[in-house]
Automatic annotation (TrEMBL), chain A:
InterPro entries: PIG-T. Residues 1-25 form the signal peptide. This is Phosphatidylinositol glycan anchor biosynthesis class T. One of its GO terms (biological process) is attachment of GPI anchor to protein.
UniProtKB/TrEMBL annotation, chain B:
Its main location: endoplasmic reticulum. Pfam families: PIG-U (PF06728). Belongs to the PIGU family. It is found in: Endoplasmic reticulum membrane. This is Phosphatidylinositol glycan anchor biosynthesis class U protein. Pathway: Glycolipid biosynthesis; glycosylphosphatidylinositol-anchor biosynthesis.
Length: 439, 435
């Protein structure tokens, strides 16, 4: 990659998530309406806010569904009546400059598929957009919801704010099984082995020795059971179940600045290519850039509420051919204008932008975030420190910390100390669960 | 003799107290030569913490001591240091009294044999006089209390000190002739770690000798006594085990304590022979090798008992030494216990052949243990092979020591029956060889 001046990726994240929905609704963005859920606030899955947000969205865009789909298919394929497919793919790219000068690019590919495995006798044999390997896995193991993420690198929450979907370094797998599953442990073991084959990752090492079944934290994202939260639609409007496959790739690029404080980036510099066309199988394909000083400029703007504050995005709709301009390619770039005759103005602009960035950094600072480090030396003894920061100006939060420790890391419970503000503290509730001991 | 003993006790307590208050105490508690997963103090505290949290102390594979220890320290955890110093003191006093009684017995037997004219004329120099035997009990107590191994074990608060105290009290009760107490204490020692089971044979032999019951399998008096002693022993063992069950309310402790001792799942390096073997071995053969290694300890009882049936106290010493060398998680505290007996066999000095080699090996290994551990774990420039080499050498030194004393003892007995200057059939000088 000699053409690159940027060194690649602090962070490289794949996130796959399947969320079955009650209804086969869709989430199309309109140019001036609220943007969709993958950039919804709050990384914590267990909040009611998000549920309401989802609900509002689904209901708002429900009526637009048929009209838009017909329009799309007509413009692309002509006058013949199109075949109605049960699945559709939407792809998006969000580019957000981070306060520390790095660029956060988040790809998201969502496949919505209207089928129900869990009905008896309902076998699926035709797979179009939804991958067959995953579909078969879901039906065989009676999976209700599945999240898998692979992360390389470390997300700097303090400098970059919250990621769209937080995930720890390494591989993480969350699965919710359908309630008809009797042998959860056996199912889990087989599922990890199958997934490790599909993704060529050593997930089969996630065995019972480093698996936990959380009793107090972490509830499923999608369908709620009666006790907990978040059905996405109201029952009487939903016609059935649908699967949503969400594949996300998050990358953070390290900008190589030229030393003049100029923050210049472009799609070509990051990915060594420009966009020439949208995916032909996708029903919607968009690029969102966060600052509106981008070129080429676009008339489309949209706003979203992210992490509690409203952001404005420039929208580039790749399904419209005029986005690509005369060169048949789209290269988003941000360039600072600094003419020699307007130095004072540019310095003022620079300071203003710097101040804006600082202000943004304040806004982006997360309310709660945690860090962990290991201390000690040698192979025999050590300590694990987990530090939780609360950045709220005046409010205190109760924190539930769930930690799973593998059997070969022998920790001593009596050495647990909790200190807050340099004072000794005791947890109000401490629950210990020993899982299977190695043979 | 009370005054020197008291002085010795004061000196020992002072040394231990000074070390407890220094920064070395934490360092010593972590040394793998001094503590093992069975008797580490940190694990006892962890077990107590788990008990306070309402979880069984045996969950999580951390705590492997018996429930009686947990209940003892439930009340005494704040005075733990005093408990261990007192245990050391009890051991020393018990050993002192035992060796005193033993010496009296030896001297009495010697007197009768002399009067019966059973000794050949030229071996009179091998006989022992009360004068030379006068300071032996004090030396035994000193060897135990001032042994660096014992001091390290006490400062680390390893429960090995408590085990040693029970075994020393058992020896005292046996030598005093109280079969009941001896049975109960042996049951307690067996309950702590299974290996003192092998001390049943020497204790039995001692009592039979004392009561003038001949060891004849056809005699009913023999079986009568054996059954009585076995009944006391097994009965106390059952009572103590049942008590543990009622204390904690579950049988968790049996797989955690005895299962742990027998199946050796934790391969933390120590001064024993098990860890390296089982780390390198394939799973397939693990059971076989566990059986081989464990049988090794119990196996020597019968041949030694047959050979040393006239000398049960020496048999006890040999048995304790074999337990300390071949047990699954030995520590230097176990080594210190049998080393305390060595002054009692002072008179064998002239027959020892390897004593210089053995003492050099043991000293060098004791010095090299921490060095190679540091090189392996902290510096990263050595590996487990270095440490295991020193372990092997240390155990080799111990085995050589024990076998050397065995040889010397037997040789002296031979001389006492056949005369000091042995001649072969053709009149040339003969040497005795241990085969």
């Amino acid at each position: 990659m000699a053409a690159h001046r940027y060194s690649l990726s602090f962070l490289f994240v794949f996130i796959f998530s399947n969320v079955p929905l009650h209804c086969s609704c869709d989430t199309l963005e309109q140019a001036d309406s609220i943007v969709e859920t993958q950039r919804a606030p709050q990384s914590n899955k267990a909040t009611a806010n998000r549920a309401e947000f989802n609900e509002r969205q689904w209901q708002a865009s429900d009526t637009e569904l048929d009209k838009d789909e017909t329009t799309d298919s007509q413009s692309l394929r002509g006058a013949a009546a199109p075949p109605v497919f049960k699945d559709q793919l939407q792809e998006e790219l969000v580019i957000r400059p981070l306060p520390s000068g790095d660029i956060y690019a988040s790809f998201q590919f969502r496949t919505l598929w209207d089928v129900d495995f869990l009905q008896d006798g309902h076998k699926v044999s035709h797979y179009r957009l939804f991958p067959k390997s995953l579909g078969q896995v879901l039906s065989k193991f009676s999976v209700r919801e599945l999240h898998i993420s692979f992360t390389q690198g470390f997300w700097r929450t303090m400098q970059w704010g919250q990621p769209f979907i937080p995930s720890p370094p390494g591989a993480e797998l969350w699965v919710w099984f359908h309630h008809t599953v009797t042998d959860v442990d056996g199912n889990w073991r087989e599922l990890t082995n199958v997934l490790s084959g599909i993704f060529c990752a050593s997930l089969n090492f996630i065995d019972l020795t480093n698996t936990v079944q959380p009793s107090a934290s972490f509830k499923p994202l999608g369908l709620g059971n009666a006790v907990h939260i978040r059905p996405v639609c109201k029952d009487d409007q939903c016609t059935g179940k649908a699967w949503e496959l969400r594949q996300t790739l998050n990358v953070v690029f390290d900008l190589y600045t030229s030393g003049q404080g100029k923050k210049e980036w472009s799609l070509f510099k990051m990915f060594s290519r420009t966009l020439t066309e949208a995916c032909p199988l996708a029903s919607s394909s968009k690029v969102y850039g966060e600052l509106f000083e981008l070129s080429p400029s676009t008339p489309l703007l949209s706003q979203a509420v992210v992490l509690g504050d409203r952001r404005t995005y420039s929208v580039y709709d790749l399904s419209r051919s005029e986005t690509f301009g005369q060169l048949r390619s789209l290269n988003l770039l941000l360039r600072w204008k600094a003419d020699s005759g307007m130095k004072i103005y540019s310095i003022a602009v620079y300071l203003l932008m710097y101040g804006l960035c600082y202000f943004l950094a304040d806004m982006l600072r997360p309310l709660l975030h945690a860090e962990r480090y290991v201390s000690g030396f040698g192979l025999q003894i050590g300590e694990i420190h987990t530090v939780i920061y609360n950045n709220h100006p005046y409010r205190a939060f109760p924190v539930l910390l769930m930690d799973s420790v593998p059997w070969y890391l022998q920790i001593y419970i009596h050495t647990l100390t909790v200190t807050s503000k340099n004072r000794e503290n005791k947890p109000s509730e401490f629950s210990l669960q020993f899982m299977i001991v190695h043979e | 003799m009370a005054a020197p003993l008291t002085l010795l006790l004061i000196v020992a307590v002072t040394i231990r107290a000074v070390l407890f208050r220094s920064s070395l105490a934490d360092l010593i508690s972590e040394r793998v030569e001094v503590v093992s997963p069975l008797n580490a103090w940190k694990r006892v505290v962890e077990g107590l913490a788990l008990l306070d949290l309402g979880v069984s102390p045996y969950s999580g594979d951390v705590f492997h001591e018996t429930p009686l220890i947990i209940y003892l320290f439930h009340f005494l955890v704040d005075y733990a240091e005093i408990v261990f110093v007192v245990a050391d003191g009890i051991t020393a006093v018990a050993l002192y009294l035992s060796v005193q009684i033993y010496n009296k017995n030896v001297f009495r037997k010697q007197k009768y044999a002399l009067e019966a004219d059973r000794y050949p004329a030229d071996c009179l120099e091998l006989l022992r006089s009360p004068k030379e035997m006068f300071y032996i009990p004090l030396k035994v107590a000193m060897f135990y209390l001032l042994n660096p191994f014992t001091i390290l074990s006490c400062v680390a608060k390893s429960t090995c000190g408590l085990n040693n105290a029970v075994i020393a009290l058992f020896i005292l009760c046996t030598l005093k002739g109280s079969a009941m107490m001896s049975g109960i204490l042996l049951a307690l020692a067996t309950y702590q770690s299974i290996y003192p089971l092998t001390l049943f044979a020497p204790a039995l032999l001692f009592f039979l000798q004392r009561l003038y019951i001949p060891v004849n399998l056809r005699r009913s008096s023999f079986w009568c006594f054996v059954l009585q002693y076995a009944f006391v022993y097994v009965g106390s063992l059952v009572v103590i085990t049942g008590l543990s069950f009622f204390l904690l309310g579950s049988w968790d402790f049996i797989p955690s304590v005895y299962g742990f001792i027998f199946s050796v799942p934790d391969l933390t390096p120590n001064i024993g022979l098990f860890w390296y073997f089982f780390a390198e071995m394939f799973e397939h053969f693990r059971l076989f090798f566990i059986c081989v290694f464990q049988i090794n300890i119990f196996f020597y009882t019968l041949p030694l008992a047959i050979k040393l049936r006239e000398h049960p106290v020496f048999l006890m010493f040999m048995q304790i030494a074999i337990i300390s060398i071949f047990k699954s998680y030995p520590t230097v505290g176990d080594v210190a216990l049998y080393m305390a007996f060595l002054p009692a066999w002072n008179h064998l000095y002239r027959f020892l052949r390897n004593i210089f080699l053995v003492s050099c090996v043991l000293l060098a290994c004791s010095a090299l243990f921490p060095v190679l551990w540091h090189l392996w774990i902290y510096a990263g420039s050595a590996n487990s092979n270095f440490y295991y080499a020193i372990t092997l050498l240390f155990n080799f030194g111990q085995i050589l020591l024990v076998s050397d004393y065995f040889y010397a003892y037997l040789r002296r007995e031979h001389h006492l029956t056949h005369g000091l200057y042995l001649k072969k059939k053709d009149g040339t000088e003969a040497t005795l060889v241990l085969k």
